[in-house]
Amino acid sequence: MTHRTRIALSLLLGLFCFTGLGCEKPAIQTAQPATASIATVPVKPVKALRKPWAHANSDLTPDPRITFGELDNGLRYILHPNPKPADRVYIRLVVETGSMNESDDQQGLAHFLEHMAFNGSKNFAPSEMVSHFQRLGMAFGRDINAYTSFDVTAYNIDLPNSTPKMLNEGMTLMRDYAGDLLVLQTEIDRERGVILSEMRDAMTPEYLDSKAIFNFVAPNTPLSTRWPLGKSETVSKMNRPLFKKYINDFYTADRMTLVVTGDIEPKAIAAEIDKHFGDLKNNTVPNAELTYRPGPAVKAAANVDAKLSMTEVSLMCLKPFDKTPDSVAAQIEGFRRRCALAMVNQRLSQTALDDKKILDLEASWYPFIGYCDLADLTAEGKAEDIDHLVKTLDTSIRQAITYGFTDQDITAAKARMLQNLEKLVEADPTRKSGPMADQYTKSVGEKYVLTSAATDLAMARTAFAKFNNDDVKALLNKLFTTGEFRLFISTNKPVNAANVLKQYQAGTKVAVKDPRKKGAKSFAYTKFGKRGKVVATAPADKTVAKNAKALGISMLRFKNNTRLNIKPTDFEKGRVGVVVRFGNGLLSLPKNKPGLTLFTAMTYDTGGLAKHKVMDIQQLLAGKSVSSNFSIDEDSFVLSGSTDAKNILTQMQLMCAYLTDPGFHDEALRQMQIAVPMQFAQLKTDPEGTLQTQVMPLIHNDYRFAFPTQKQVLSRTVAESRAWLAKAQKRGYLEISVVGDVQPQAVIDAVAKTFGALGKRAATKTPHPAQSTIQTNSTLAGKMRSFRYQGTKSKSFALVTWPLAEGDDYKQTRCQSILSRIFSDRVMKKIREELGLAYSPYIMARSSSVFPKNGYYMGVLGTSPETAKQVADIVRTMGQDLADKGVTDDEFKQAIKPTLESIKTYRKTNAYWLQSVLPDSSLQPWRLDASLDMTKFYQSMTKEMLVPVAKTYLQSSKAFRCMVLPSNYKPAAKPAATKTKKAA
Length: 984
What we know:
The protein is of the alpha+beta class. The strands form 4 sheets. It has a 7-stranded mixed β-sheet with strand order 1-5-6-4-7-3-2, with helices on both faces. A 7-stranded mixed β-sheet has the order 13-14-15-19-16-18-17, sandwiched between helices. The chain has a 5-stranded mixed β-sheet with strand order 8-12-9-11-10, sandwiched between helices. The longest helix is centred in the middle third of the chain and has 27 residues, at 328-354. The protein starts with a helix and ends in an 18-residue tail after the last strand.
């Protein structure tokens, strides 16, 4: 997915989140004098006029487990009882209003109001709402959140249990959001700085480019004139009457839908909804409507911004938004459309890999917020290659429309889609309630029916039963040749869009050749030697063996010293995760090869296998749920993937092939050579890039953590990567971890035929000298440094760090982590809520069991250049205050309760076991100890346990402060000192 598509889809789906910029069916005493809430006196309930449910006018049947309901005042609800995870409830309040409904002087108000929802309501005093729910075990951002888009504002709360008391807490909060917000002027003024800070952080070249695209596609509509963040000039002037008017006009019952999923009884929840929301008022003002405005048949434009790191061109085909109801026929066409686009993207990916001038190519289709249906071809590359990018897109789509695809291509694409849908059906019994609630939230106001996974699979099978090459060509022709044509260019150098358009139009008259080719017939990596033999079925250490058994983990060793850890689970029906760790990773990096880590990471996966290029692998294994991704950890090289029980052997074959015979084909090198200059250009224009390239290497103080230059990365070679990896691949310590819905014997058999059949491996890892010698840069203590980046005038960062040790003691790291949560809460309240100087400030604790002396506490605060030093100084002082005075009982409770609640659900995920427990557990048996005592340890933790941590690490004298400022920022001149005459 190109960066433009990612941004556009995030905007379309409404990810302007309270905690950060975060298509197709996809009782508290008031701290201030009593003030009446803004909601008007409830009117007599009248049946509101709303669009009917999507399934009301459809031949599709919604998922029978869903309860759809509506109150007399028009408020709707969607309820779905689901036991995964047990005793949890997820509530979403969706208000069908957003920035499109704002008047000229309200621009940004819908998003501002979403923030104000957390700053005082009928039942929760200002600044107390978040703290109240933290005491109940919920974490701000994770369990309590919200977002605003063009047409929707949504509020989320994830309850830690389903007791009547907790449900009442959740419903009370949602009722306050719906109609009982205080929106005090003092709180508006306080929050204003946070909003302006968020706007400052968001104003990146990519964000501004997205605005330009929206204006190009939908000019003079709310999609181009009413962006959710609004304008700084209107946000700066907003007052309570403006908020009152917006709430009275648009926070009405018939625009609201409650989504509740989890461990619930629908009838009881429906009664609670009626009790809490039945008195809400109805609609008085209509919503803004989007009407497609036909434009010229052909149009071209460009957005030129020198700060853009790459060039993107789009060929778009626009049609009026299809408002016909969802139906079986529409769904069948949708499956076929996605299948056809998948084949186009498969071919485009290979074209991008083969082309020396192209970074990425992509085809997509999506409904553009009810305005139009948009088919889009996008290419990424360099400014000097714009004509080539456009020509490649045009040639590629005309080849697809004219010649289509081979039977092998079509069969593989259908198999991939059906296999994905089959996975959803298989996983349905263990489907999680949180993602379910989010899906239903996004469906509100949309036209598609909430069908079950089984229904979707049945429709897809019908769609593909008679779907041939003629159907594919006709469908692509409909998508990309009918409608209004648009050419848009985003680039960092001057360009004449009209000339590019002429070149494109001339090129369309040139005939295209048939691109279809037959691929390889079979996967070449199925045999790796004589079947390996298991020589140990449990750890030799009796304590370790006992702990593994208690955790349900099998720990085996093969004759060639390959280690295998297996944890069968029923958390995700049908899903299996695999992690293969080998060698010494970053520890073994040659000192004289700067850039080798990045070079290797960027070329390993895309380089495919010696006998198959990466696109061939995808085609050969189509319909099989397998994957392999390479990464470099501090002390291991890592291959990770996911599969299902029936494909466990193929999964092991693929990963073993990537271990023993990576291809490093030239196409991967070409892609890297195009991508690196663009990535480095982006790093220069973003303060976070400066943090990554200059500040963090300074703190880590070792060549392994140094960020290379562009020249260094591009000077590295495949031969150097192969030499670095060779020993680890052939003889390095090898440990495989498997977690999920699988039988242990099937895993053992698959590993025996693959990794177990390889030559002798190292029996253990030899400790590396660097592990004990690398430590956080102590020479920075007490200093202040300033760094510059080539970016906007307003965006800056303040950073404060304190060296942190004892990363090899998991009990100490837990105390460090809880202290960081408390510190973060303090910083949030002080810097964001009280002073309004930063949008999302936070404190993190980073420790490492590999480099136990190379950890740190770090405060990261996006702020203005004028306040960067002030913010850094405040945070340093707050650290000293924690060291001197410790934490309060209430602060400790607000940190420990959400942690304990998160542990309950986190331990019931494959990710926890696969990331935190099993990997390297043969060498690090403390991982088993840590898992066994996890809940008990946190339950027994006291605030007194945090005192020595704070006193040891958060001293002001140890703090390093730095600022990352725009290169064009000049501090205001200090007033000249007034001279005074000396006394006689």
